[in-house]
Write a structure and sequence with these properties.
The complex is a heterodimer. By secondary structure, chain A is α/β, with parallel strands linked by helices. Chain A has helices at 3-9, 70-78, 101-106, 124-135, 140-150, 167-179, 197-214, 225-231, 249-253, 260-268, and strands at 26-37, 44-55, 59-64, 85-90, 93-94, 107-110, 185-189, 217-222, 234-239, 242-248. In chain A, helix 1 (3-9) crosses helix 8 and helix 4 (124-135) packs across helix 5. Chain B has a single domain, classed as Orthogonal Bundle (MetI-like fold).
């Protein structure tokens, strides 16, 4: 089963994005990143020397099993996980720790769990107006309405609370919140894995459309190879905090992998087949 | 108001506006949430009883001059009107200075309400601030604040109040300060415990990624989630605070005579307990009913506000 069939299963038709990076300059560069959690006996090395480079306007995927460290890369970029070594560069410049407001205007993140990423006591309006207030934007009313319509939510959603929204609607609000500050880079931490299949397709198509409309750079983390095959031009396979291999979409669809782990991952994502199960 | 399950034709328009699932403004959304909470609260009978008692206390305090039939401070004829039993003229009898006990209790509700309100207003913000800051920042801030809290927690409330009024002199204001500075540590502990669970939530990560300052995160994101538990705790503590204030009054360290503070009334009526039971018992019943009212109200609020207590 190739990954084109996977896209059709999701109801996604056609190629995604322009697939062309605008310039050769790397928008986001990670060099030998190391992240360690805990101390002493409870030390866990989440990332051991990961390097990758994402060009401007590109969509880059990171795949792996649970615990491979893929979400940790995104959290380290944002400053939510401590960097133990290595460097992270945004548009050529090293990021500062703690991150400054200019960083947060350039890089935003969409989280995995739509039920946890919105404050339960804030309306959608409050969720969207807060980043505008923090960064001092003008024309806030217009921007909020525009953000809601960009993600396909009508004006009736503006004053609802999260418990009055479905999972897909919440994730759209999370996307609107990330995009309202007009970032250049969007980090997507398994944005659709908590949603059901039909809603997954809608949200992925929305993300695709926004990327081509605004020329955004995406770093998409997922455990689902089909999602990554649809959304990303290049991808990196992670295992145990290390990068195993880097592939392009073409190689992924052709199932052309040089590493055994990658081939096993591709086989595993086909699902259960009697023939593949060991006797 | 008609319950929301009534047919749309019978539902009054205000209720429908409040319960709309497409609110058109912040005000409508917020009022709608409050209305839903109110509907949930109304279902709890004891909670409603508690609310009625507390509202009666507030009403008595506000309209004491109108409700009380006699002067609370100046007695009648000392030869004929001392220690009269309850009657239509004097609903709760008179005390040893020929003052109408019912009027004194009604005016005393002002003092009780003042103590309760001021202690809540002083102790709750302090507790919230210390607890949320301690839980959010962690590290040495947490250590310093929590050890300070432990120090205040180690003082027995009544003993500290005694020391305070001994130093500053007796009076209801000093009693209030003394009770307030020993009441906040449990709220700080509670706020800290709530903050520790909230701190790791993804919506806090998300707002940090918006570049929000710690002050904005604590005030706008952490405190609203802690508030429910703290409100329930404060309401339940009200009963204890009333008793402490009454205890101080009983010892002569709270409100001074001739102020009609309920605890002081019990103290002065002790001598007559056998033959003229109403002098000490009536204020005792008043304290009992008001404490019970706050307990019921607190339980009702917990049933509505605490998600773990629901279902």
């Amino acid at each position: 089963m190739s990954f084109t069939l996977g896209r059709e299963r999701l109801g996604i038709v056609g190629e995604s994005g322009s697939g062309k990076s605008q310039t050769e300059r790397a928008m986001l560069e990670i060099v030998d990143l190391e992240v360690t959690f805990g101390r002493g006996l409870t030390r866990v090395k989440a990332l051991s020397g990961v390097s990758l480079s994402v060009a401007e306007g590109e969509s880059y995927g990171i795949v792996g099993e649970s615990g491979s460290g893929k979400s940790t890369i995104l959290r380290a970029i944002c400053g939510l996980a401590p960097m133990g070594g290595g460097a992270i560069r945004l548009a050529g410049a090293d990021v500062r720790t703690p991150r400054d407001p200019a960083f947060y205007r350039t890089v935003q993140m969409v989280f995995q769990d739509p039920y946890a990423s919105l404050h339960p006591r804030h309306t959608v309006d409050r969720v969207l107006s807060e980043p505008l207030a923090i960064h001092g934007f003008d024309r806030r009313e217009a921007r909020i309405e525009q953000a809601l319509s960009d993600v396909g939510l009508g004006a009736g959603f503006r004053f609802r609370y999260p418990h009055q929204l479905s999972g897909g609607q919440r994730q759209r609000v999370a996307i609107a919140r990330a995009l309202i500050v007009e970032p250049k880079v969007l980090l997507l931490d398994e944005p659709t894995s908590a949603l059901d299949a039909s809603i997954q397709a809608e949200v992925l198509n929305l993300l695709d459309r926004l990327r081509s409309e605004r020329g955004l750079t995406y770093v998409l983390v997922s455990h689902d190879l089909a999602v990554v095959a649809h959304m990303c031009e290049r991808l990196s396979v992670m295992q145990h905090g290390r990068e195993v291999e880097e592939l392009t979409r073409a190689r992924l669809q052709a199932r052309d992998a040089s590493q055994t782990y990658t081939r096993n991952l591709m086989t595993a994502s086909d699902g259960f087949t009697r023939a593949a199960a060991p006797s | 108001m008609t319950p929301p399950s009534a047919s749309p034709a019978a539902r009054p328009p205000l209720s429908e506006w409040l319960l709309s699932d497409q609110p058109g403004s912040r005000r409508q959304a917020r009022l709608g949430q409050s209305y839903r909470t109110w509907i949930a609260f109304k279902a709890n009978r004891l909670g409603m009883l508690g609310l009625i008692i507390v509202l009666a206390l507030v009403g008595a305090a506000l309209f004491a001059d109108v409700i009380a039939p006699h002067d609370p401070l100046v007695g009648g004829n000392l030869r004929t009107e001392r220690l009269l039993p309850p009657s239509f003229e004097h609903l709760m009898g008179t005390d040893d200075q020929a003052r109408d006990i019912f009027s004194r209790i009604v005016h005393g509700s002002r003092l009780t309400l003042m103590v309760v309100a001021l202690v809540a207003l002083i102790a709750t913000p302090i507790g919230l601030l210390v607890g949320t800051a301690s839980g959010y920042f962690g590290g040495w801030v947490d250590t310093v604040l929590m050890r300070t809290t432990d120090i205040f927690l180690a003082f027995p409330q009544l003993i500290l109040a005694l020391a305070f009024v001994a130093a500053l002199g007796p009076g209801i204001e000093n009693a209030i300060i003394a009770i307030a500075i020993t009441s906040w540590p449990p709220y700080a502990r509670l706020a800290r415990a709530e903050t520790l669970t909230i701190r790791d939530a993804e919506h806090i990560d998300a707002i940090r990624l918006q570049g929000a300052s710690s002050a904005r995160i604590i005030a706008g994101h952490v405190v609203p989630l802690c508030l429910s538990s703290v409100i329930v705790r404060v309401t339940l503590d009200m009963a204890g605070i009333i008793l402490t204030a009454a205890g101080l009054g009983f010892l002569g360290l709270g409100a001074q005579p001739p102020q009609p503070e309920w605890g002081a009334m019990i103290a002065s009526g002790r001598r007559f307990l056998i033959d003229f039971w109403w002098v000490a018992t009536m204020p005792g019943i008043a304290i009992f009913i008001v404490s019970l009212g706050f307990n019921f109200l607190g339980d009702g609020l917990r049933a509505v506000l605490d998600p773990k207590a629901q279902r």
